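Reopening closed ticket. The problem is back. First fold of the pair:
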Amino acid sequence: MAQDAAETDPDDFWNMDTPKTPIPPVTDADRAAAFPELAHDHAHALEWHSKVLLEKLEFWDTGSGTGMAWEGKAWIGSDINRLWLRSTGERVAGETEAADVELLYGRAVSPWWDAVAGLRHDENPGRPQDFLAFGLIGLAPYKFEVEATAYLGRDGQYGLRLGAEYETLLSGRWILQPVIEADFYGKSDPQRGFGQGLNTVEAGLRLRYEISRKFAPYIGWSHARHFGESAEWRRLEDEPERETQLVLGLRAWF
């Protein structure tokens, strides 16, 4: 003990540059334990998952009858590569006024964004038409969910659909969701009711109650406005340029 005391300099105790005990070198196992997501990125990329989301299935009353609208999406794949299926549509008084379906391949281009490309098929309005589709799906700053898709169709027709939504958590089960969507087309198509430029803007506000995370009825308000040639054609057919509805609906996923 005397020998150990003689060999130890008391001033070394207060020297912060001198370690009191040897520090072992950092190993790969240490790095993996500290950063499990980085260590398993490759493994995660090989794992396959799937999800089906019925974003909205809603009903309302109009002067011409009961209306119904749907919007849904599904995907299957890994964190990097996914196959997407999307569909939207609307029926009024038993007639389908609009319906489309998209089949897209998506690839992650950042932690929050997927680039997508594929096909869109419109069954209504007017004659059926197909488009090539290219776009982005992701989460913008401040947690806005954004979808932006460009379309290229026959006879030089092209279009753009932009959509954004935001979820405000009012409590553990009540969620308020504002939504806005806009459609643009490059060429007039009177048969299908598409005018050149901005066609429609639709805004909505929905309040849902999550009975479970996967099942939530809601009540909401929706307002759509038509612009340009699209509005003129609606006036000629005695249809309103603006439409406002109170809706009841359901959101579910599995």
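Second fold of the pair, where the issue appears:
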Amino acid sequence: MHPIVKPALRRAWRDLNTVQFGMAPAHAMVLGPMDTATGSFLDLLDGTRGMPLLREQGREMGLPEGHVDGLVDRLAASGLLDDATGGGPAAAALREKKAVMERMRPDLGSLSLVAPEPAGAVERLAARRALRVQVRGAGRVGAVLASLLAGAGVGEVEVRDLGRVEPWDVAPGGLPVDSVGERRESAARRAVRAAAPDRPPRSSAKGKEGEAARGLDLVVLAPRDGLAVHAPDPVSAEPLITSGTPHLYAGVVEATGVVGPLVLPGDTGCAGCLDQTRADRDPTWPRLVAQWRSGRQRRVPPCDLALASAVAGLAASHALAFLDGDAPSAGGVRWEASLPGCAWHAKPVLAHPGCPCGAAGKTKRERASEDEKRHATMGEQQSHAAGLAGTWRAHV
């Protein structure tokens, strides 16, 4: 192990015995009491030294026997310590790609704040390289979103869409101006390739749309037609439900941006649940949807560029959180923001008992049991950290 105090967190002394790591409340931590010698020793935790050398230098600084190991343990338990050599073989292979690591340094810094364990950030980044995501839709939202995922290190990002690029499909970070007239899939593929920090691995996935869904870690549904995200067709999502493929909706309808729900088949509310819940609340809903789907479509649907970019960014963030193993707030929730205020608010998508997806079949006891397990795990981790931290204080 080559310990390094996470460089993403700026350090400042609140007084002679208390040090604060980080500025923003979400991840900032205050630790103390800390003597002057220990504070000076923190500068040696820069990832260039292994534990034997650190113990030796600690003795030279007059630190008592075992103090260095205790300090490293406490910093690690508090989520403040990284390991410059850890993370396993995949992380080691990624470190060999110097140009990729340089480009991904801001992402690694951010990941280190949400992955508390040492070397957790590089381990997560290395794991992204093995993931496969499909984005359905190459408009102002879909193409930008796909480029963001590729740029964040997702190994394979495939974009599906029909037709050719129109002038109104062009967006910064998405389809470029010189792609107008080109097939949307080809143009999106080129944009994704340009955004990726490394050459994506070869794909062995073949077959039709239903077959391609197998083996996908996530499908993002980002239709160019706002209706398809405002009132998603449950029939079109049936292959994803049947195959158990997680999928996330994102798009712009008129002047409203929508992100979610993130559908975990059999666990969270889906497009069918949303449709049936709306029909229960508003008997005219099916009639309205039928007219919207059968009516003559406008040639160019409204899609504010800044709003579309915001939707793509938020959707990409939720997608990455899910792919990294965290619980994004889009699970079973639709986030919506409308112009001109653009204030995001959440609307739950509850599992409907009449929907064949089966999400409502989970009993309250099963859901409570899962919640108890999650809380128990978090409690164990917190107790373990508290035990190692001793008299240190941690404030978020």
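Update: turned out to be a display glitch only; the data is intact. Residues 204-214, 373-396 have pLDDT under 50 and may be disordered. The first strand starts at residue 3 and ends at 5. Please close again.
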